[in-house]
Design goal:
Keywords: NADP, Oxidoreductase. The chain is an alpha/beta fold. Helix content is 29%, strand content 27%. α3 (127-140) crosses α10 (277-293). It starts with a strand and ends with a strand.
Length: 329
């Protein structure tokens, strides 16, 4: 038997509960992990609430990121043995491969022997933010030295990872956050410039940094009304990568700007990197190299005990965090 977090009905954090269930052995090409830390993501809360891109058959477990010790391996797995210290690139389906439990199994291709100096909590905070940001900025946008890049929701784990990746390749990260409350922390985290979108004009703020020529790359998980200011601040031929939809307001399509500047507005999910063996291998190598060089480092906002999973989800939905929320076992 093993303890797992599940929900038996859709709803808020209060629907989460810890159940004892029979642990299934790892299937072929899977690695079973004795979980020591879990990284929380906005997607976890969306699945729990019934608003995620994947539907949960009830009762359902959840979770996309974990770190721990290999407990067992399935048939066809030769790169891992029990006792290996590992962490997990988020799977395509958290319903099929949930992370919230004492034991969890994942496809072997998504399991990584991370640098040994990382703690379990740090390792559980690596792969979602850094692979997401890498896929958008490096794999797709080809971010390079001297590029200006606007990063909205900059204090999120992905936002902070994007800032670090931009600095690692010599680009200029412009962090966008709602208020100035997190300005000093964002600058300490590597943001070259910080714009408080609720307290100043977003377009004017970007132009004050990048000039009238504009920015080439925008990474945004929000959508909504800021789309017009973001596209107005972009240079001809620029690319905006949308990887979320946090705004509850309609997102306008700025047709004159898109046509006049021949902009690319592109939807993006980490899944397109995870599904592709070659692109995933390149992402892993980039992140591991950055971790070892010290240019990339996960940012942990707060840790919670496994038994406090409801409180952890309430904190996740408070939007107060700066970086990744981690649950430890």
């Amino acid at each position: 038997m093993t303890r797992v977090v599940r929900f038996h009905k859709l709803g808020g954090p209060e629907v989460l509960r810890i159940d004892n269930i029979e642990a299934r052995p790892p299937a072929a090409d899977e690695v079973q992990i004795r979980v020591k830390a879990i990284g929380l993501n906005r997607a976890d809360a969306l699945l729990r609430a019934g608003t995620y891109i994947e539907s949960a058959p009830l009762p359902s477990s959840l979770g996309l990121e974990a770190a721990g010790i290999v407990e067992a391996v399935g048939d066809g797995v030769y790169d891992f043995v029990p006792g290996d210290v590992v962490s997990v690139v988020p799977p395509i389906s958290m319903v099929r491969h949930p992370a919230y439990g004492e034991l969890a199994s994942f496809p072997a291709r998504l399991v990584v022997k991370h640098p040994p100096w990382l703690s379990f909590a740090e390792a559980a905070a690596v792969w979602m933010p850094f692979v997401t940001a890498y896929g958008a900025l490096i794999d797709i946008a080809k971010l390079t030295r001297g590029d200006f890049v606007v990063v909205t929701a900059a204090s999120s784990s992905v936002g902070l990872a994007a800032i670090q990746i931009a600095n690692a390749v010599g680009a200029v990260p412009i962090a966008v956050t709602r208020t100035r409350a997190k300005q000093d922390a964002l600058k300490a985290a590597g943001a070259r410039h910080v714009i408080a979108s609720a307290e100043e004009d977003l377009l004017a703020g970007i132009e004050a940094v990048a000039g009238k020529d504009g920015v080439r790359v925008v990474l945004d998980p929000i959508g909504g009304p800021i789309f017009e200011a973001l596209t107005a601040a972009m240079q001809p031929g620029g690319i905006l990568l949308e990887y979320g939809g946090l705004s509850r307001e309609p997102t306008p399509f700025p047709l004159p700007l898109v046509l006049g500047k021949t902009l690319t507005l592109r939807g993006y999910l980490i899944h397109e990197i995870v599904r592709d063996h070659e692109r995933l291998a390149a992402a892993k190598a980039f992140v591991i190299d950055g971790l070892n060089a010290g240019t990339l480092k996960p940012t942990i906002a707060k840790t919670f005990a496994f038994e406090d999973i409801v409180s952890a989800h309430r904190y996740l939905e408070s939007n107060a965090q700066f970086g990744k929320i981690v649950v430890t076992l």
